Structure formats: structure tokens, C-alpha cells
Amino acid sequence: MKKLKVTFYPENKSIEIEKGKTILAAAISAHIYINSSCGGDGVCGRCKIILNKGEVISQPSGRLSPEQRKHGYYLACQTLVESDLEVLIPPESRLELDKLTQEEVDLRLKGLYSKAEEVGPPQSLIKEGIFRHSPLATKLYLELTPPDHTDRISDLERVLRHIRQNYDVKVIQIGLVNIRRLGSLLRDSDWKVTVTLGKRNGTTEIVLVEPGDTSEKNYGLCFDIGTTTISAQLIDLKTKKILGTKATYNRQASFGSDIITRIIYAREEDGLEKLHHAVIDTMNEMIKELVRENCVDLNDVNCILCAGNTTMVHLLLRVDPTYIRREPYVSTANFVPTIRANEAGIKINPRGLLSCVPGVSSYVGGDISAGILACGLDKEEEVCLLIDIGTNGEIVVGNKEFLISAAASAGPAFEGSGLSCGTRAARGAIQKVKISPKDFEVSFNVIKDVKPIGICGSGYIDIVSQMLKAGLIDKEGKFKQVKSSRLRKSDIGNEFILVFSGDSGTGSDIVVSEADIENIKRAKAAIFAASAILIEQLSLKFGDIDKVFIAGGFGTYLDMENAVSIGLLPDIERKKFIFVGNSSLAGAREVLLSYEAMKSITEIAKKVTYLELSIESRYMDEYMAAMFFPHTDKSRFPNMKE
Amino acid sequence: MAELVYQKWSGKINETIIGAGPLSIKIGAEEGLPFLFKEGKIPNQPRIAFEVWDIAPADWPDELAGQYKDVFNNPLEWAGKCVQEYQAQAICLRLQGAHPDFGNKSAEEEARLIKDLLKALDVPLIILGCGDDNKDNEVLPVCSQAASGKRCLIGSAVGDNYRTLAVAVLADGHSIIAESPIDINIAKQLNILISDMGIPLERIVINPTIGALGYGLEYAYSIMERARLAALAGDKMMAMPFICFVGQETWRAKEAKAGEKEFPQWGPEAERGVAWESVTAVALLQAGADLLVMRHPKAIDCVRKYIEVSFKDNI
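The joint structure predicted for all components is written out below.
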């Protein structure tokens, strides 16, 4: 097959590719990441590129305006390479894979890890030391008595006896690799060795035996593997200190922005492999940097604890996720045994362990179990609600007596996906908006204070709320007939210009269309309806809820009042809302540091009842009732004035 | 003997007045479920309007069209016949001829017809658009103005297109039909949106959309029943009377329009269609319908008798 050269600008990066492959495929091979929410179906129109030179075969697409077509725009996923090409990737199509800046990381991780004043009421969150310190991997420094004629038990017996006598730990397993090396290692190190013990599925094994005392150097990592964002922390397992925190985008985003698209992609040729590699590459790079920045030897990183939704865990472990989206929606494994990180392709100490937080069901994963643990929902006396707003909206209601959960397919609207000018909550995203009811003038705030490139979820919540208040839209989300230079009619409907092209970072107007508002309405209706069904299932009212924990990457810069006014959150006392940020990562860290927390979270995952909304007949009705701002039933939002 | 227990409701259905003269009709105002006279007051009997078109309907089956064949091409005479011959209490004029595909009559033409009708008739008038949003937005405001002060009932406002009509209806003192697709939530949402435009709640009538017998009647029934229960329990945004387009739905059903030659075992179509329309209407009355728009004079006569008999107990 003839190889053709595709050169991408502005990187000036070239790649050889077979004739007839898509430009999107070429870009992925060249490690250039282009937006592709639909995973190459040609429906999202996010992967626009400009062809500078060369010949292509292209499918016609309604996602390109005649203007754009004239200027050589194509959809990368619908365009086949026919000759050597020169391709320019415009900024709006670029999937920013750069590491988030420290400030962005802080934003994402605000809440549980932030400075004390930004955390919600401390009594609601997990208390320091509630679980006994017993990390997934523990190092013990042993000074063994050498054998003599009166004490002739074997080397291995000697090590095990010492541990049993001094630490009250019953070691069950040890690998052959370690035994083979043991004889000379003990003698060469003058019977002074460090043993790394790992907790594996209820048993304890000797992971590693090293000469001398290295017990000070024992590190672990916790990960939150989100559909959109991956967050990680490097932890000193001995002192429990957090050495560094990083967050970056999940590279799987190139294969589709939601889990369903990715599950479908996994069935394509090499699809599972590619998805698996996208996530482990992202993780390995994060580990490498965390380790380098903190001057830690990769070999001293002995364990990893991952929390993620069920699909993400499947992909991390390279397990086929197909059956998650087929009726009756059963996953291959919700409880995954602790394995060697190596087996999953994660590069730490080759004998290091990897454990995943157990999940509840196919659509309520380990990230939610971790969230429950981190918020202490399972310890609460009063009934509390946990809402995790991500690509999927997961809801948990309960207390120490019971826990019940549901997942609402909210879609990625709150992460800025599927909207005409949506973007993730990162540099250049409009995150706070005010619209004057007098003249509809707009003021906004952009992450990192640069020229805006798009609008993120919290920005959209503000916009819808402000538009309602300013009388720009009716309660159905349709534009009213008002006079404003910002309101215009395009061929796909009415739209409101938030930022004129001259002031935007993309050179185009940043707009909010009626369709965008409809999308937001659907997403918020799904989350509200799921919450309402769960509450109703327990014969409770929202007013009976003691605390509402709001988790998720964007939960941290969410304007509560606006979120209530559009009907995303229930209209209850605002002081009951507690923003917890990334509760999944917090939970994963607890589990990494304590075997008790691991037992506790396993109990949580077993205890949570899962309510499948797709077979819940009332869900559709609740959903339709919530498809209104704030809600069809005004009495549910008594504090919202007209 | 044990005493019967009656439900007492906190809510009440709004009363809507249609028409301006001495023959104006009142619908709604129920304080209990249909025909349960001991639950609460039911001051107004359900009413029936005759459906009249501005053009000769092409798709009415022979049995039905035959009833009006002498007046089919003249809406004025048609309406007159309904009043004089069949004692119609209200006329429902459908402006089908305004539809771009069915004559594309101008707004002025339709307005003139309405003026003439109002001059000739003393009974209240219900005005329906042609169903094409753009055309209705052009025609209905002009017609509304032509009927200004006559307290007509004009429709239909739908979720995607209610503003133009609402503004006109409000200005000219009419009432509005709010149409939703057999969905209690959308019905309520539309009521809120219309009332947000400034139209008083008692000038909104719900068209819940119905199906004929065998074509989703029970679904429509349960939606209406739920809406009515919500209204009686105090939900003001659901407390509007219902208008049901019985004729329109019935005469689309194969069982109503198919000829005897086609299905000899079904019996003569002259009886069948009338029975189908009557049964559909009676079921909807039990669900809470306040205003029925019907077509066949015999069916209307039958349902009228049913109402009369049923209301005998209403003392």
C-alpha cells in the first residue's frame, strides 16, 4: 500500500500514512490531538481542519458553512488522504492536551484538598485519621538474626517468623522471583533488609525484598480516571503527605466524548487497544512527571489506587466494555482484584500493585463509591444526597443505614461538549457570566484571564439563568422577541452573541443558540429527574435532605443560586449545599492509605442499591416535568420568584 | 345502610365564557370529577360545537359529507344550517383554506368570512387555524382583530408557536386554545408560558389532543383524568376546561369511515360512524371534557341526550 506524507501545521509535524485513511487517523498517529466528540462519525463537526495543499476525498457535511468550505475547511474524520497533504489545524479544533496549569489544577481540586477556608463544613467530610494508617503497600525494615546450629529454619521461614513475631501480620504469599533471590540477598546485606508487604485481596504478600533500610522511601499514587479528566496525586505512604497533584485531559477524548461512543469504538479494529493505550499513556506521563518533580525514584512507587467509572476501569484494564451498553447492562467486573500495575501497562516498580475502587453497577462506578467514602455519606445519621455532575450524572441518597443510587445520562453538556461554543473548564473558558436585564450587555470571567475561546458548563448555567432573569428567553428556553444587537437569526435558529468576534480568542463570535439551551435543559432535567425519583423512592421530599454534596470537576465553580434557578439543583436551604470538588480522588487516596478504608469502600459498593432508571416508568414523566425552567411544577421551587 | 363518603376537593376548574351575546356559553367551573354531582358543584353542562370549514373538506367520508352536501361550499350557509336545523350551540370554524396546500386564502379573505359569520350568527364562534405555523401567525391575528370584542375561542397555540396568537387574543379579548401532544407536563408548561404573556388563566382552554376509540382513547382519557385530578387538588396551572376535537379524530378511523362493501361484517356505515363518534365523545365526557367539537348531527344529537340524562341528577 502506498504511503503518503501528511504534514500538520502549525507544528510542522509529518507522518506517513496509507492512502485512504482519514486525516483524523493521521493526526492521532502523529500524536496531534484534534477534537472529536462523536468519535469520527462526522456528526459533531468538532474536527475541522484547513487543507493547504494536496488532494482528498471528502464526504459532504452540514457541519461546514459554505463560507468555511470556500476557505478549504474539511472535517478531519470525513476526509480521506489521497495525496501528500499539508493540513492546518485551527485553534478551535485543537484538543488541548497540555498539562493543566497549577491554577487550573487548584480549581479542579478545590474542595477536599484546598486551603482550609475553601472547604465546606469539616464535620461533613471525612475526618483525618478515621481509618487506621495501613497503606496498600507497607515497607518493613527487618534486622534478622542470622541462622546457626540452634536456629536452622530456612531463610524464607526466618523472614516470615520475624514479621509474624514483630508486626502481628500473617504473610500468605511470596512470589518465586523473590524466593530465588532471597538466599544471596539476605547474606549480602548482612541480614538487614527491607520487605515491601502488599495487601492483595484479603491476603498479605511479600511484594519485594531489598537490601538495607529503604523503609523511608515508600510512595503511592491515587488516580481519578474520569471520562474527560484524569487527576492524580503522589503520596508519601509513610507520612501520608501529598507530594504533588496533577490533572490532565483523558486522551481517550479523541475517540469520543462520552462513554457510549467509546464503548462503540472499542469494538472497532484495535479500538480497545487504542483506548487502553490512550489512558495508560496519559497516566504514565503523569506518573513520570510527578516522580521527577518530587525527586522520587520510580522504583520506590509501590502501589496505585484508581477510582473511575466502570467503563474507564474496564478500558484501563483492557477489558472489553461492550456489554455495559447492551441490555441488561451488565459489566464484566465491578470488583476487580488487586493486580500488578505492570499487568495493566502502568509503569511503577515492576512488582508494584494496582487496585481499583469497586463499583456498584455498570453505570455507578468506583468513582461514586469513592465519593461516598470521601463525603462520609455512609456515616451520616441524617439522609444526605450526593450529586456527581460529569459526563454522566450520578446520584446517591442515603445515610449509615442505607444507600441508593442512580445514573442519569445527562450527556456531556455540562462539560461543554455538544454545544456550539462549548469547551471544557480550562484556559480560555468563560466560567462566570452576568447579563444586564436593561440592555442585555454581558460581563464575564474567563479562566486564566485570556481572550475567551468558548463557554464551559458553569458558564452555561450562568447564561441560562441570567437570560431567564433578563427576559431574553421564556421558561421553555426559547428566545423571546426582544430587540438587541446581540440577538440574531441563523439558518439553524436563533442565537445570542455573547462575545463578538473582535473580542474572542477564536476570531469568531461566541454564541449561545436555542439548541444549546435545549441541550442544557435536557442535561439538567436528567439530573434533577434522577434525584427526584430517588428521593421519591424513599417517600422523602428534597426538604428532608440534610446535606447535598455536589461533586465533579465543575462543581467547584458552580454558582449555586443560578444552578437552582435553572432547576439543576433542588430549591432547598442553600446552606445545605456542600461543594466537594473531586470526591473520587479524595476517596481513592483514603483507600490507598488504609486497608480499613478499602474494606469500608468494598462494603459501600456492596451496600449501595442501584436503581436502573431506564426501566423506571416514572423517570420519563419526571424528566418531561423537569424540561422547563426551573420546573413545570412551580411548587418545587417555592423560593424562585417570577 | 352505611353512608357514602364523598371526596371534597380544594381546587376548582376555571370558568371560561365563549361568545358575547345572550347565547354565550360557559364551560368549566366544576368542583368535582365529571358527573359526580355530590362531590362538588357542576354548574355548566358540557357543550358541543359543530365543526364547519371555510372550504369543502376533501377527506370527509361520504356518510359525513352527505349531511352537509347542500351547504358544503358555503361556510355561511353551513354554519346557518347547523344552527337552524340542528340547534347548534356553538360553531367551530376551521380555516383550512388558508393552508398553503389547500387554497392559500389570504388573511383578509378569512377575516371577511369571520366578520360575515359573526354578523349572521348569534351563537359563539371558535376559530381554528390551518395548522401551518407561519400561515397561522399571519392569518389568526387578523381574524382575531376582525372578531374583536366577540369573545371567541381561538386556536391552537402550541409549545413552539404560541406568542403571536397569545398577543392577538389578549388584545382582542378572546380566549385561547393551548394544544399539547397528550402530555400532562407539556400541557402545564404551555399554560404557564401563555399566562406569562399576560393572558388570564380563565381565558385558556386545554386541548389535550385525543385519540378516537381504538386509536389511543384510553391514553387520552388517562392524561385528562390526571390533569383534572391535579387541578382539583389545587394545581391552578392545570385548572382549565378541556376542548376535545372528537369529530376530527373519529372520522379518521377506518372503523368510522370504511364502507359496508369493504367490510360487510361491520354493518352499515351510516350507523357505524355515528356510533364511533358518539362513543368516543361519551368516554371523553367521563374524562372531563367540557367542550366537544363534533361533526355528525346524529352523533351530536345522541351525545346531547346522554348529557341531558346524566345531568338529571344534578340538583
